[in-house]
Design a protein that fits this description.
The chain is α/β, with parallel strands linked by helices and about 350 residues long. About 45% of the residues lie in helices and about 15% in strands. Strands 1, 2, 3, 4, 5, 6, 7, 8, 9 and 10 form a 10-stranded mixed β-sheet that branches. A hairpin with a 5-residue loop joins strand 6 and strand 7.
């Protein structure tokens, strides 16, 4: 049932029972059918290992079917990395919930099994929390990479030095500005606000807004995390089905409740405009990279319905014209293929 896999309210995160000898940091690695990338993920973490007294490292697998994940973790981790596997596939949201509940550290890093961290990431995060103890979360700059690890582009700059971002709530309320491998959250914050809920696409954006509504957030501009974009991840799959637009529309309505009443309408409209432009532009990706013209048109149309602006108008017209040309070409091709009838014998 969807209610089992997609909780309607933020799941409860229980406090750690044994408060003695807790590590500073828990690196919790949710995985599902990402064995092609998990090896690199683990190597990137182990290269910065601070020791078990300081850092918990654990893979929480959502009943993968692509390989023996436990054997892979044992091979790479050599006893240093713990392993837990769900008895059945529970979905990403429930797997994140398991990760957080199994964490013991004061700080929790949910590092997806297809993402990576660069050398110095954990030291930088530690320094951020030491310098800004009031922060509920902290994140670094990050790079988008492809399935082969090639750098595509960096995140948009947010500051020129480590700092608590003063206007962060308004920025994150307008649209996504940070990806999961770059951000670490105090466990006490998850205990206060609960885990991820409501949808699979945009669930992290909703969480970052929820955190920012209650806590300051610290940031370092150093690009020390790598967020991987590939066709097998959940985000890419949702582009093909159109679930991305439906989920974000729902997320925008939920996030609206976190906004100050005086700014609610303005920030809500900005979020709709931000995501409508994003989905309008990515309709081109769905059309060309995923070779799915029908879904590309649906995405452009959904973006237009989310907010009417020059970008959504342009891409809706573009997808409509592409669809019309494709239809006309198909008709011409079919007419050419029709056999020419022979004259009847006299």
């Amino acid at each position: 049932m969807d209610s089992d896999r997609i909780p309607a309210t933020p799941p409860y995160i229980a406090p750690v029972k044994d408060q003695l000898d807790r590590p500073l940091l828990s690196v919790m690695i949710p995985s599902y059918n990402c064995s092609n990338y998990l090896r690199e993920t683990l190597i990137s973490v182990l290269a910065q290992d601070m020791g078990p007294a300081v850092m918990q490292i654990e893979v929480v697998d959502d009943h993968s079917t692509d390989t023996d994940v436990e054997a892979l973790v044992k091979e790479i981790g050599k006893g240093r990395v713990s392993f837990f596997q769900q008895k059945q596939n529970v979905g990403s949201l429930r797997n994140f919930e398991t990760c957080i509940n199994r964490s013991r550290g004061h700080l929790v890093h949910l590092l997806h099994g297809d993402d990576m961290v660069k050398p110095g990431f954990y030291k930088e995060i530690q320094a951020l929390f030491e310098q800004f103890p009031e922060a509920g979360a902290a994140f670094t700059g990050y790079l988008h990479i492809d399935e082969y690890g090639n750098i595509l582009y960096p995140n948009d700059p947010l500051s020129d030095r480590p700092a608590v971002l003063r206007n962060w709530f308004n920025m994150i309320a307008e649209g996504q500005r940070v990806q999961p491998p770059a951000i670490v959250v105090k466990r006490s914050v998850y205990e206060h606000l609960g885990s991820f809920f409501a949808f699979h696409y945009g669930e992290d954006w909703e969480m970052w807004v929820r955190i920012s509504a209650h806590y300051p957030v610290a940031h370092s501009p150093r690009h020390l995390a790598k967020y991987r974009i590939h066709q097998e991840n959940i985000s890419s799959q949702y582009f093909v089905t159109g679930q991305n637009v439906r989920d974000v529309a729902k997320a925008i309505e939920i996030v609206k409740n976190y906004l100050p009443e005086g700014q609610r309408r303005q920030l809500n409209l900005k979020a709709k405009r931000h995501y409508s432009r994003y989905f309008a532009r990515t309709s081109d990706i769905v059309y060309h990279r995923y070779a799915n013209p029908r879904q590309a048109f649906y995405q452009a149309k959904s973006a237009f319905q989310l907010d009417i602006n020059p970008t959504t108008i342009f891409f809706l017209l573009k997808m409509y014209i592409k669809r019309l040309i494709r239809y006309r070409f198909k008709q011409m091709h079919q007419s050419i293929q029709q056999p020419v009838p022979l004259p009847l014998p006299s």
